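_Full entry_
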Amino acid sequence: MYLDELYYHLMHSGATLFPASQEEINRLDNIYGPLPRAYIEYLALMGAGTGGTLFRGASCCIDELFELNAWARELLADNNSALKLKNDDFVFWMSQGCMFCFFHLKAGDDPPVYYYTEMKPDQFRKISGSLSGFMSACCRNPGKLL
């Protein structure tokens, strides 16, 4: 539904997708949820990883998702940033321990995506109007995420 374009592209590129289990998705939803529908779709499609270049080297799979919010808060504190994550912010992607992406849990079924980097420690930047758009852009240009 939200990620149909992404799924079609990945299947035709020969990517191997590893879905998160329904139990893992339920656990994440019970702790942080309710999660946006587009994100649940992502987890069910490839939440345990991909066999290719998409998100290579990034923390965005189910085995690390339970830690990302804490790691992001630690990064903000380490950089003496005046920014704070709100209780309804969900960090779903982190790379190199110096940048992360998040969305607001209450921003609908396909929420906008925001980005933080320690290179600009006092700025959250909106990088996509939707999570599905962010995922599709990552798929089209895996080496140029942000």
The mean pLDDT is 87.
